[in-house]
Each structure stands twice: as structure tokens, then as C-alpha cells.
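Section 3.1: Structural characterization of target chains.
Under the original work plan, the team committed to producing a structural model for every single-chain target entering the pipeline before any wet-lab resources were allocated. The record below documents one such target. The sequence was received from the expression subgroup and is listed exactly as submitted; it comprises 553 residues.
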Amino acid sequence: MIKKKVFIIVAVAVVGLFLGIVIATNGPSPAHDSADHALPERDDHAEHDDLAEDGHDENAADKDHDDDGHGEQEGAAIQLDLEQIEQFGIKIDRAKPGKLEVWVSLSGEIAFNANRLAHIVPIAGGIVREVARDIGDNVVTGEVIAWLESTQLGQAKVEYLTRQAELSCCSMELVRAKDVHENTLKLLETLKSSPSLETLHQMNGSAMGMNRSLLVSAYAEFTFAQETYLREKDLFEKQISSQEDFLKAQSNFKKTDAQYTATQDSVNFEVRRDFLEAKRAQYLREIELKAAERILYVLGLSDEDIKGLTALAKSQSLPPAEKEDCNDPNCTECAVQAISNDQGISDTEVRKANEKLAWYPVRAPFTGTIIDKHITLGEVVGDDADIFVIADLSSVWVDLHVYQKDLVSIEKGQKIIVSTCETMPDVEGVISYVGPVVGQESRTALARVVLPNESGMLRPGLFVTAQVAVDDIDARVVVPKEAVQNLQGRKCVFIRDEHGFEPSYVVLGQSDNDYVEVTSGLDPGQQYVTKGAFELKAKIITSTLDSHAGHGH
């Protein structure tokens, strides 16, 4: 082994000596020749090495560039001044805990408010004489929507007119009975003072009927018999007249006195009885008139209708009996007659009223819209016919189907958001009723919401979906849903730090209609973009594309 090493050393030394001799013999070469011959050989190897190294570096640079590009899209920061922030509508807030509402989704449909829905049925059957409104027309409370002619109503009106006429005519009897009663009592009171016949003649203008003649006649006979008796008594005491004449005069006086007293009592009794009888008869007629009026109310007539009928009754009352003109302005009998003669309506109106005496109006019970109609001109309808359906669409019901799994969560008073379609805004309401039973076929319970519908956009029959807030939970960080964006298939929010705005990828938890929980990627207290996140995302993507173009890609 030692001999082999010695041999190698000796060989190297010999080669070196040989090369030295060759160089010494040929001498040094010119610079140009050296560059032409020595350098090319070295440069070939060096150039190969340099190409290899440059190629390696270039690949590495490409790789680094690709890495930088990906990093720019995933975690690039962008600087914005205040003017740009305002231009993009960016709003910034600090992340903080919050509560999230837990919602249950239900389906259902809009229905009529049954408390404001009316099926119009005629009070009495009859012939349709006029139809004033059609389907879709809006009506107000009390508006006439049709006219019917009813035999039953016509008979009721005739009965009312008859009772009204009787009451009007017989009221004069009561007034006369009252006058007779008062005047007769006044005459009886006057007779107590033994007035002269001349004084009695002055009471001829007072209404007393036969009572005056009876009383005055009896009083005159009594006065004559009394005077005869007193004269005969005086003559008999002076023994001028016979006892027989005195006794005869005395007997006649007692007889006329008894007759006069009896006449007074009889007239007093009869005049009081007649007055009470007249009042009782008038009271009964008033009761009969009131009964006839109640029948008209039962048949659907209003106060205005009955007032018009009363005016018609006055216009057709019988003319008063002919009598001598009375010039006394305080005469109550004349006043009653004047009222009876005041027709109140013209002859033309009376004629039209008589022609349509059996007509009666069908009126709208409240303000609403006619949604159905089953009535035509000239047909005969019964008192059970459903001729109109009127609905007040200013409010509607939303009937929701609650499945068994959600029954424990749905309660009266819960807040609810109702959605109909994309073109209509959502409507908020409160559950007003939860059904106590579950349907046999649907296996769902009913939950009802009453919604205002002044615009008329909530049409009965539309299908709806509803979100019911049934609970709320505490979350570590909650952000508005619009703050969360999708960047390269991952959810992120844009935070603001010393580098500017940059995306922070987050993991989301539960959510409600407006907010979502962030379980990681955003800590409480960090500043993040609440509004304008989409515009900021577009700005970052645009900046990333520009940076790729700068690398020559």
C-alpha cells in the first residue's frame, strides 16, 4: 500500500516536471491568442454552468412570483384614504358579542279577515228591481247596493201607514176630549157660585159638547124651582098663599135640586171617563204604531227610511171635517189640524213613494269591497239567498301551518316576518292565535297573524312563508350578513389594521335574518367593515389582477 502511494506521488511529480519543460520551451503566448484559445474552452464550461444556474434561479423566481400572487389574493392589504372610504360607502365598527334570534320557518296563505267578511242575505224574499253595484266595487257603510220588491214588506208598510193615519186622526179626538173635560170642570166650578144666566151665556164659545146644555138646563130648572119655593114660602108665612101651594113648590124645589145634583155628578163622571178613555185609546194606537214600526226595522229599514214613510203618512192623512172658521190663535184643535194638513213632500214624491211602496234597499253593512255576487235583475230571491259577499280588505289573516316538531316553539304574541314574493317587501306581525287542535289530514295546527293591508297588496289566496322568532342565543362575535363576503370559495370579513384593509377568513356559526355568528377569524374589539364590503372586495380583486399584469403574465 505504501509502495502504491509512493508511486502515485512520483507520477504526479514527473507529469508536473514535463509540463514545466513544455511551457519553458514554447514561451508565453500573445494575449489575443490566449483569449482565442484558452478562454473559449473555459467559457464553454462556464457558460453551461451559468445557464444552469440562471435556469434554476428563473424557476425559483417564477415559483416565488406565483407564491406572491396567491398571497396577494388571500391576505393582500389595500390602503384607502378618507375620500375613497367615503366614495365606496365603507362603514367600520368594532367586533363585539351579541344575541342571535332563533327562527322557525312556516308556510301558509293569506285569507280574508272573517271578522270583516259579510254574506248579504235579504231580510225578506222578493223580486230584484235594481242592482246598483258589481264585483270589485268599493262600498261604504249604509250604501244601497240593490233594491228588492217584497210583498211582505209592502204589507208591513201599509200597516204602518194605517196606524200612523189613525194616530194622526184620533189625536184630535184626544185634544177635543181634553178641552171638553177642562171646560166642563170649569163650568161646574162656576155653577157652585150660583151665577146668573147671563154669566153662563158668556161661556158659549167653550167646547163642552152636550155637557153644557145638560148642566145649564138643570141649573135653570133648579134656579126657577128655588125661586118659586122661596116666594111661596114667604107668601105662606104671611098667610097670603095656601099651604097646598107652598108644599107643592117645596116638593118641586127638592125634586129639581136632586136632579141638578145628579146631573152635576153624572156630567162630572162622564167627562172624566171620556177623557181617560180617549187617552187610553190614544196610548193603544201609539203602541200599535210602534209595533208596526218595529216590524219595519226587522225587515231592514233604517231610521231615514221610516222618517220618509212618516212624511208619506202625513201627506195622505184624511182632511179634517168641515167646521166653522176658528179665529182663536191658541186653539189646540186647530193646531193639530194644521199639523195634519202639512204634507211635507210634493205630490210627485208621494206618487213615486206609492209606486215603490213595496221596495226595500239592500245596504252594505260596512266599508269594503264586493268580492262575490249572486243576483240579477228581475229574478226572484228568497230570504235565504246569498246575494252579495263583502270583505273589508284593509286587514287580512295569514293562516300558517305549524308542524308537530314546531308546536312547542310557537306561541301567541311571538314576532313574525311574512314573505310573499321577491317583488313585495316583507311584512312584520305578531301571532294572535294558535289553534288548540291538529288537523286530521294535514297533521298541522293553525297559527294566525292579523296584518294591516291598506295598500291592498296582500291578496287573499297568496301563498306565503313566515319566519317566527322562537328564541335567542348569546354569540361571541356577531356581524351583519352583508359584512361577510366570499373570496376564492372561502368566507371572509375585511378587517382594518396598520396595513390597511385586508380579508380575514372566518368560520361562521348560527345566523338570523340580519346577523351571523363568527366563531373564529375575528376577535372582539377588532375593526372590521360593516358596510361596503362588496365594493372593497371588488377593489382588492382589481388590484390583484393589476399586479399580475405587472409581472408580465
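The chain has a mean pLDDT of 79.
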